[in-house]
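so my prof wants the structure for this chain in the tokens format not the other one, which i didnt know existed until like an hour ago. anyway here's the sequence
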Amino acid sequence: MLRPNVKPTVLLKSKRLNELSTKERDQFGRFEIIPRDKAKLVSYEVAVQTRNNDYVADFLEEVADIPCIHIGDPSRGGATTYGYPRDFGFPYETRSIFKLFLEVERVT
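here's what i got, hopefully its the right format
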């Protein structure tokens, strides 16, 4: 879905599990677990040419509510993930490259 002239380099940074169950102790010290859903999170680092950073940010805002396939560069430890962009930001830059942090919540 990216424009042809936007060729980001994608590096898989982490895979995490956000476990939403609650765990409480009763008056006798025993745990009571209330099972809830889990969210699988995948984080990518994406190198974007500086001239394209606004386009990429706008694109991610547009698809925030649409499940998409996010494909990492296999030669750099990338992974294919089907899910929603959960968070993104541009933590640092050079004159020619912005490093985009992208977190995707997998659809399971």
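also thought this was worth mentioning. DSSP finds one helix and seven strands in the chain.
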